[in-house]
Write a structure and sequence with these properties.
Keywords: Signal
Radius of gyration: 20 Å
Shape: elongated
Helix content: 10-25%
CATH class: Mainly Beta
Number of domains: 1
Structural class: mainly beta
Strand order of the largest sheet: 1-4-5-8-9-11-12-15
Order of helices and strands: HEEEEEEEEEEEEEEE
Protein name: Outer membrane beta-barrel protein
Number of helices: 1
Oligomer: single chain
CATH topology: Porin
GO biological process, one term: transmembrane transport
Signal peptide: 1-22
């Protein structure tokens, strides 16, 4: 499973790089093709769960983390953006037949590739985007009750909106909002405490709010 996950992630990143390099090789435009942004982001899950056998729901904590993104511009308006961040979330099953269950924490690595359209013409440059997301789960701490917790790698979709405010020809400020549509299958081994292994279909669907600074190269 881990080998397959790594292969998918590498293919995802290589596809982005090959797309940008191919366009760069065929385009003689001397304008700025690359943009880099560093944001501080708030990741707020809009979570729900269908928990087998014991019922209940899920509560996933909000996270505050840095985010790096890399954009390649095909022309003045159209670009692709690769978004990179990782976040740690506390997880709890709530309102189950066994009460509230602390499921420890998990790290999410959700590289996201979006296509964007930028509304140019002034120093204020709004944009809209949509794309795909691959989320890897790692660094799982199962908490004090479960013997083990596993999360399936998830492929989802992303919507995005925001704006850049140009400070000069090179530097700019950025405000960005994303919505990820993200679902995973969680397997909780609680045989010691509950005498059973419990599966759950979990919708994470986070809102991501970011503010930062960027540079054109």
């Amino acid at each position: 499973m881990m080998r397959k996950t790594v292969t998918i992630a590498i293919a995802f990143l290589m596809g982005f790089a090959n797309l940008a390099l191919a366009q760069n090789a065929s385009d003689d435009n001397d304008g700025s093709k690359w943009q880099f942004r560093l944001r501080g982001i708030v990741v707020t899950p809009d979570e729900s769960a269908d928990i087998e056998a014991i019922g209940g729901d899920v509560d996933i904590s909000t996270a505050f983390v840095p985010e790096l993104d890399i954009s390649y511009f095909f022309d003045e308006n159209w670009s692709v953006e690769l978004i990179l961040a990782t976040a740690k979330h506390d997880v709890e099953a709530v309102g189950t037949a066994a009460g509230d269950i602390d499921l420890g924490h998990v790290w999410l690595l959700p590289p996201t590739l979006t296509g964007q359209y930028h509304f140019t013409g002034s120093d204020f440059v709004p944009y809209l985007g949509a794309g795909v997301n691959l989320t890897l789960f790692y660094g799982v701490d199962e908490g004090p009750v479960a013997d083990d917790v596993e999360y399936d790698t998830a492929l989802g979709f992303a919507l995005q909106g925001g704006f850049d405010f140009m400070l000069n020809d090179k530097w700019f400020l950025n405000l960005d909002v994303k919505k990820l549509f993200l679902n995973t299958r969680a397997t909780v081994d609680a045989t010691t405490a509950l005498g059973a292994t419990v599966d759950a279909d979990v919708d994470i669907n986070p809102w991501i709010f970011g503010f930062g600074v960027g540079v054109k190269l």
